[in-house]
Protein 1
Amino acid sequence: MRLGDFVTDYRTGEAVLRTPVQRIWFVAFLAFLVALPLVGGHYITFLGCLVGIHIIATAGLNITTGFTGLISIGHAVLLGVGAYTVAWMANNGVPFWLAIPAGALLAGAVGIVIGIPSLRIKGLYLAVATLAAQFILSYIFREWESVTGGVRGLSVPPAQIGGFVFDTDLKVYYLIMPIAVFALWAARNLFRTRVGRAFVAIRDRDLSAEVIGIDIVRYKLMSFALGACYAGLAGGLWAYFFRAITPESFPLQLGIFYLAAIIVGGLGSTLGSILGAIFMTLVPEVLRALVNLAAIISPAAVVYVSPLREIVFGALIIGFLILEPHGLAEIWRRIRRFFFLWPFRS
Amino acid sequence: MSFLDFYEYSLIGLLLGGLYALIGLGFVLVYKATRVLNFAMGEFMMMGAYFYFSATVLMGLPWWAGVMLALMASAVLALGVERLVLRPLVGQPTISIVMATIGLASILHGAAVMIWGADQWRVEPIVPRAPFFLGDAMLPGQLVWGFGLASIIILGFVLYFRFARGGVAMRATATDPHTAMSLGIDAPRNTAVTWVLAALISTVAGIMVGAMTNVSPELGVVGLAVIVVVILGGLDSIPGTIIAGLIIGWIESMSVAVFGSGVREIVPFAVILIIMMVRPFGLFGTPEIERL
């Protein structure tokens, strides 16, 4: 139960972590993140890295789609822009602390280019523009062989700072995790600023937003570019994590994966980005485990992993849209609310 | 490029455009009725082609029975989808429904791979294969017949919407569901019928395209490319879709002639980015006027 929790000014009301208990939990959570790979073993570390990358990309899509209401189907290909930029730079001797921001910025710039045609109308058109971008950029990844290595793709040397080489999953985890925490911290705080509130206003009613003085075109572009930046950042880390990228690494299905992640997690919620990305990363792992179990009985079952994943992703999107449109974040909030009042009201 | 090449590629492009217009009609029907761009239309096409494949190749039925069976199966599928996915989302923001159709596309694609595998299958075309000669140009028979069939179906729909009682009721529902309901039109039923009609159209298109390119899970991508056609046509305009279909078909055919077949899948998408900058509501679409 929560006691003595009075909000007497706006500053406290808007704080991300309001009560001492929340702060303690938050510090405990950070400590958990640091300790996770040390106690979890190799597989958990691998999943931790993957979740970190997915969380960054999901947070980006959530800024564009969840907070600003612009559907993007081609989010995956923006990861690709970040990943290819980093891969190309890393192969040309640029250190990772320069390559990763460069990848994010370039993805943001590409995002602006994609966003421009669709700004005159609503989200539906942006969805089509991002679909177009998905096909066109995939084509470029495949055909621009001198830079992208064509269908064979590129291999990426490990990130390196001084003499320290990020060559194992464990080391890469400590590269990804702080960046993911920072990216989420930035995303969470964005929505306490003027810019973030403008995004939300555009989502809720873009005409009203324009009437109260928000430059819709500028803020829509900004939102899309920001989402693309997050994707580029995630893509850059992806390159250093998998150390090899091909045009097939960033298919339309990956974009749908992220769309599913924000819907499952909760549109317009930073917590939702985290929960959604974790959930969606674990779903294929669980499916694979189940199929492997089924493969004991009939070995042919293994081919069903990828179509089954598509079916489950689609079903999750539709199921959450119908049954729990605010996603896992809402379920989490409900559980918390229950304990605020417990045991006086159940 | 010689004049003969130009002439031949132009004709092939226009014939292809007729098919695009047919698929586009499916999009327009659903958009007019529900204001939703159905991203699963390509997958409906793919399912239709697979139903036809199952009936003719796996069950060994003659082609006409295969077509009937495929149409029936698609109708059932569309009814189920409307009931389970779209009706619960009535009244939700458009963005939710659009995302639901994306989820639907993912489910159908996965289901097709699961049931029929990821391989390509050959099916017998429902129209003669023998080529046509128009002057010096040789045109693939399937394209010519497909174009003819598409024209008849489109014409039939235009007449139905213009004159038939059911068609007028559907137009009324599309314009304003509440008024239509107060006039005694069963709006939810009309929406369901619209989905079924769209599925039937995409089945016919799917069978024809499937016979030309082989039936595979990739057929859905053709449907995605047709989104470009409906946007150029203006989303809610049937004449616009026909003209846009011909234009996109021609552009695609010409660019394949000039740049080689590798560009086929990206040309429509490059075109759309330009269209959205120049004329965002398409050739014949209604510019949206919004009020607070």
Note: The CA atoms of residues 82 and 103 of chain A lie 4 Å apart.
Protein 2
Amino acid sequence: MIRVALPTHLRTLAKVDGEVELDVAGAVTQRAVLDALEARYPVLRGAIRDHGTLKRRAFVRFYACERDLSHDSPDDPLPDEVARGAEPFQVIGAIVGG
Amino acid sequence: MSGVRLLVGTRKGAFVLTSDGKRKAWDVAGPHFAGWEIYHLKGSPVDPNRIYASQSSGWFGQQIQRSEDGGRSWAPVDNKFAYDGTPGTHQWYDGTAHPWEFKRVWHLEPSLTDPDTVYAGVEDAALFRTTDGGQTWQEMPGLRGHGSGPNWHPGAGGMCLHTILLHPTDPKRIFIAISAAGAFRTDDGGTTWKPINRGLRSQYIPDPEAEVGHCVHRIALHPSRPDVLFMQKHWDVMRSDDAGDSWHEVSGNLPTDFGFPIDVHAHEPDTIYVVPIKSDSEHYPPDGKLRVYRSRTGGGEWEALTKGLPQEHCFVNVLRDAMSVDTLDACGVYFGTTGGQIYASPDAGDSWTAIARDLPAVLSVEAQTLP
């Protein structure tokens, strides 16, 4: 079970409290986790990744295990702690604007 | 008893204000979508409880929300606005070619006859339409395909399609306006478009009388006389008597002819309202006095409406979509400010009351007259 922590606005949009738990088949990558997340909560399509290109939106970051994974390839394996459910995959709204 | 519902979009959420036909006491509900920018909300003319809202965020992009109960509850619909074909380029601020990129929906205009059909004006400027209540959106590509698209360029607020006027009896005629490209009209339901900017004069562009490039801020019409258009341009208040084929200036005795909104009295097609703003570099009223100006002559001659409005130390702005009228008798006029005030006049502008004072900066106000 993969744990995903969403920022407040996306929890409100998806109508969820706390972390989301997802089953991800196969390799646990950013792409696989986000695909599963958007399949469960279609309202999040376009809110984390752009429609079409599926690129991370500019002011969204991905953290896990105290690392910034935002610039990793979406097909890189996520840390083992995330794959085991020991640590959440965190979707962060970046602090911008001063 | 009839009543009025105001749909208010702000920088940090949506608010719904309701009153009975006296329009003295108002109930304020919200914020809906707290923390999100709500550029615009508008109800279907044929089903007023069906309301569409544009919800956006610099972080999390665009959402479109739909209500079936007059704004009490909401459900998201499709948020994918994909340009038709290869998007192409428009001019960037430095004159270079810049790819068309969707940023947000500025304005939603529900069909006059079908609650499932809605037009959406977006940034970067394009016109989209849904015919299934928002479940899917398709670009109407004839507008960007007009040929002048590569020469359009953004204004300070972005290159936005902010005004959509549907002709009340001819469903094939639509007027739109883009900042800073100008006004356009289709007479074939959106397949082809023509610029309607003859008579506009903009000193801030290389050719002041160019076919496109004008920073049109807002257009309004009265449904009984839809070939007469009124325009608040970046500078100048303009009028057309031939559906936009030509324009002439009607700024008259206004203290300044810069501003954003313009609207028409619900029962008097020659009575129009603007809110003069000092200048494009000082986005606040002249002399710190918030004054709505009303013309009863279709422009040219204007009177200041001040009763109930702050006449000192007022430095707010009133944005292009933040004025609306109801259809009661007497006509109610409403506007919102960047300082978070909503002002209402139940007597066609003669007197005003702040019916909300401390909302987030107001982006849009739409009045619905309820049975």
Note: The two ends of chain A are 37 Å apart (CA to CA).
